[in-house]
Amino acid sequence: MAASDAETLSSMPRYPVLDGWRGISILMVLAAHQLPLGPGQWGINHAAGLLGMSLFFTLSGFLITMSLIFRPVVKSFLIRRICRILPLAWLFLMIALPLGGAEPMQYMSHLLFFVNSPGLELTTWTDHFWSLCMEMQFYLVIAFLFGWLGEASFKLLPVMAFAVTLGRFFNGVTDSIFTFYRVDEILAGACLALVVHRWNQQSNGLKGILPRKVLPWAIGGLLALLLLSCHGVGGPFQYLRPYAAASLVGVTILASAMEIGPGRVERFLPQRWLVYVGRVSYAVYLLHPLATYGWLGSGDAVVRYAKRPLVFAVTFGLAHLSTFYYEERWMKWGKAWSRSVERKQLLATEPVLSAQGEAIAPQASADIASSLKA
């Protein structure tokens, strides 16, 4: 690890618009799963689900790749991901799988995150779990590639995204739960991270990429393209959904950096309520099916939908408790563990010069160690 890595580990940029996109993504998925958004033949619910998930996957790919760029320690990366995902995922499965009457093989395929593979079945209460499986598979693959090839592995991400999209096109697959037909949505977000990082390295940063007057039109056009790509009426445009979502998020990052006037999309996204929804989004996504168990999910269509305000209240209540009183403990522990791993790697690789300017036993200075922040 180079001498500048201590600074790199603590200097990952933060983009407030991403918090808003995360909130929007989970609200779209929640609406798609639990509200009637129009007559069934219109396909609006399905389109809303695709919209929410495309944004969700874009953000995941972006943030995961950024974390490896700025915290390039594979073991630390895996520790943080495991402590973020597993505690709630496995707790949810221990409740949902018995409720769904799961078979032994289903326990294994869920707990090890490969139930979205061909020939395997999800249960009544885990229909949405395929997406988390795909994310975990992506985490493991990118960690393996980065550990093997280092930064050169990033060059493979656009190639992999294009290959998956090409496979979808030639097989006529517009959406799927199988990783090899859907992971281009995560990979597109990963490619966006590479582009944004390259932009940030330029002299003017993000502010000199596009003319200020072009950005509002770009946001509107990309939003229209994304909406079209999420519905069957979009035809071949559906294959562009990963790149429309990633481009839209990327342009709002640019617009935010250029501080375009109030009332614009990039001003709306970081609002406090959306940030809160985004913060509890993981728990909302995992737990929301359980909120319709029993009485809250009983009755005919009219009765069930009349109970939806209660369902939403239960969902967000459980998500709040999980995020701030259960998951946060695991995440803090994971961050402390990962920082310890990073310090040890710095200790093993950072030589300190003696008074004569000669390198002595590898160790990290107090300043380097203290610079490793969460």
Structural notes for this entry:
- The protein has 374 residues and is mostly helical.
- It has one domain (10-276).
- Helix content is 64%, strand content 0%.
- It is built from 16 helices and no strands.
- It has helices at 5-8, 17-34, 44-70, 74-99, 104-111, 130-149, 156-171, 184-200, 214-229, 241-257, 265-268, 272-279, 281-287, 301-306, 308-349, 366-370.
- The protein is globular.
- The protein starts with a helix and ends with a helix.
- The relative contact order is 0.15.
Architecture blueprint of SSEs:
Elements: H1 5-8, H2 17-34, H3 44-70, H4 74-99, H5 104-111, H6 130-149, H7 156-171, H8 184-200, H9 214-229, H10 241-257, H11 265-268, H12 272-279, H13 281-287, H14 301-306, H15 308-349, H16 366-370
Helix pairs in contact: 2-3, 2-12, 2-13, 3-6, 3-8, 3-10, 4-5, 4-6, 4-15, 7-8, 8-10, 9-10, 13-15
Low-confidence segments: 1-10, 360-374
Distance between the termini: 19 Å
Q: Average pLDDT value?
A: 87
H and E order = HHHHHHHHHHHHHHHH
Tally of strands:
0
Alpha-carbon Rg, integer: 22 Å
Domain module count: 1
Could you provide a short overview of the structure?
The chain is an all-alpha fold and 374 residues long.
Which descriptors would you attach to this protein?
374 residues; mainly alpha; 16 helices; 64% helix; 0% strand; globular; disordered N terminus; disordered C terminus
